Amino acid sequence: MTTSRITILLSMFAVVAVNQQSFAQDSAKKPVQANDLVEIFEKLGGKHPGFRKAHARGLCASGIFTPSTDQAMQEHFKSASLLSNGELPVSMRFSLGGANPNADERAPGTRGMGMKISLPDGSMHVFTGNNFPVFAGKDPETFFGFLSTLLPDEDGVRDPKRTGKFIMENPSVQAHAAWQQSAKTAASYANTEFFGLHTFFYNQGQANETKFRWHLTPDLGVQTLSKDEAAQKPEAFLADTMKKQMADSTVSFTLHASIGQAEDSDIDPSSQWPSQRAKVSLGKITLTSAGDDSCNNTNYDPNLLSKGFSPSADPILRMRSPAYAISFGKRLSNQ
């Protein structure tokens, strides 16, 4: 989502006159369609034909998924084909936020991840996540309203007061905006954690349903760079860093599921579940290669799930499928 540490976020909590109706408020009230989101990303990051409309700059990687043998995993995800077919091939794409394929990798902020695990029967299971733990809005209208405040006026000037006002009036944006203020530069994709944000279900039967959110943690540990450390890096350093890490050690991630309770929101990705929720290890992803173009024509739609799993009614999650499809079509047709 980020346009790489936009300066207006530094003053986002500015107090402004509340009796003036803002453009952002009007935007938030209108029903938002998938193409609206695609278009606003283009307005924020510029038009770059042939590239993704969000997370345009990225790094492809391939690897192997090895399911966990933990008893807790069997308890909650018994007989899941994703977790009972041994080692499975994985396609991954790590990325920066925004629509600019030449974005500066030294900038702090959003990092994304798409992962496709292929099953023996030809089906697949897709995961998409970001390095922030909460989304910027409870629904597409709120998210679109927030993005609208980041657009410059006809003179090319952004208004931080408009953004600050919107955030103050929309509580579901506030946790994400606070994260953006404190976010640092990822030292490497191999040292970045990714949050699934959305709620999913695994169904073992009518009376046995597991509600969960997933989380991917780097086995090499989370590492970020200070502003001074980032300034010492070249503008594009993440691919070389990954290549060196893979030569020196094993680059792997552990896939976890946080098990939800009845009171935990199914439909609001801006609401973080309590940290004390039970966590189950689903397995490990070990990278075997990185840096090719194998993921360029992959559409990482998080609603593409293997047998037994189903998405929640989260409106942001539901919006991802049509938005990704539009972006994918534009990319393939060089728009």
Provide structural commentary.
With 335 residues, the protein is α+β, with helices and mostly antiparallel strands. The chain has a single domain (7-332), classed as Catalase core domain (Catalase HpII,  Chain A, domain 1, Beta Barrel), CATH 2.40.180. The chain has helices at residues 23-29, 34-45, 71-77, 140-149, 160-169, 171-182, 227-231, 238-248, 315-332; strands at 58-67, 88-96, 111-118, 124-130, 185-186, 194-195, 200-205, 208-218, 224-225, 252-259, 279-290, 309-311. Strands 1, 2, 3, 4, 6, 7, 8, 10, 11 and 12 form a ten-stranded antiparallel β-sheet that branches. A two-stranded antiparallel ribbon has the order 5-9. The longest helix has 18 residues, at 315-332. It is globular and about 60 Å long. The chain starts with 22 loop residues before the first helix and ends with a helix. Residues 1-28 have low confidence and may be disordered.
Spell out the blueprint of helices and strands.
Blueprint: H1 23-29, H2 34-45, E1 58-67, H3 71-77, E2 88-96, E3 111-118, E4 124-130, H4 140-149, H5 160-169, H6 171-182, E5 185-186, E6 194-195, E7 200-205, E8 208-218, E9 224-225, H7 227-231, H8 238-248, E10 252-259, E11 279-290, E12 309-311, H9 315-332
